[in-house]
Write a structure and sequence with these properties.
about 240 residues; Uracil-DNA Glycosylase, subunit E; 10 helices; about 10% strand; globular; binds uracil
């Protein structure tokens, strides 16, 4: 398994170069806007078409060896007008088998978190840093992240969510281009820039639900819930009554 610090360094250098040369700047809309809030059907149809195009590219992708190891690529799924986007690390065995993000045990827990927030899975968008499963669920490698990240960056640009929830260290560190540990990053909003002239998107790092399953302590559950309450409040939505405590 590659050392975390090497991955961080290579990905950071890549992101800094990208930022320098192409004006890449990381940027800063619960639930889905009501139909009357959506700009218009055409914009919606365009978004759907663009997201489908990306998904098709992901299904054809052979930029790294993971492309030939996968059963199914997992482009991500959800509402093209989502106000919140959840970003994980990469598909696991269940996701690889089904071609859908967060459908295994970690996904079932994510579904519970989303529902506890007063949202529906169909209202949010769920994606990953990597679109193909690393063998044995090992950590993503720098070259895999560098090859795959543009797909997620384009999805974010199209969806323009108000808030990104980065699930776990890999998503948070990659999207924020930082080496800081997740324990330090979580609990407060950071800014993700998707391009020049675009406002920053608020990004809330929190523990990955797979980590939460492995470390299912009241304290860790409380931390994730505190983070999600900040997201709900930022969206201007009420904290569900039974979850206030
Ligand atoms: N873990 C992830 O990071 N992503 C998934 O899609 C499933 C589990």
């Amino acid at each position: 398994m590659e050392k975390d610090v090497d991955i961080d360094k290579v990905v950071r250098q890549h992101l800094e170069m990208e930022q320098f040369f192409s004006g890449f700047s990381l940027k800063g809309k619960a639930g889905t806007p009501e139909p009357q809030q959506q700009e218009n059907n055409m914009a919606n149809a365009e978004k759907v078409a663009e997201l489908e195009k990306i998904a098709e590219e992901v299904h054809q992708c052979r930029k790294c060896p993971l492309g030939s190891l996968r059963t199914n690529a997992v482009p991500g799924e959800g509402n093209p007008n989502a106000r919140v986007m959840f970003v994980g690390e990469g598909p696991g065995a269940d996701e690889d088998a089904q071609g859908r993000p967060f459908v295994g045990r970690a996904g079932q827990l994510l579904d519970k978190v989303i529902s506890a927030m007063g949202l529906k899975r169909s209202e949010v968008f769920i994606g990953n840093i990597l679109k193909c499963r690393p063998p044995g669920n090992r950590d993503p490698r720098a070259d895999e992240i560098i090859n795959c990240l543009p797909y997620l960056q384009r999805q974010i640009e199209i969806i323009e969510p108000e808030i990104i929830v980065a699930l776990g260290a890999h998503a948070a560190k990659t999207l924020l281009n930082t080496t800081k540990p997740i324990g330090e990053l979580r609990g407060q909003f950071h800014e993700y820039y998707s391009g020049i002239g675009r406002p920053p998107i608020k990004l809330m790092p929190t523990y990955h639900t797979a980590y939460l399953l492995r470390n299912y302590s009241p304290e860790n559950r409380r931390r994730v819930w505190e983070d999600m309450k900040k997201v709900i409040t930022e969206l201007g939505l009420p904290i569900p009554e039974h979850q206030k405590g």
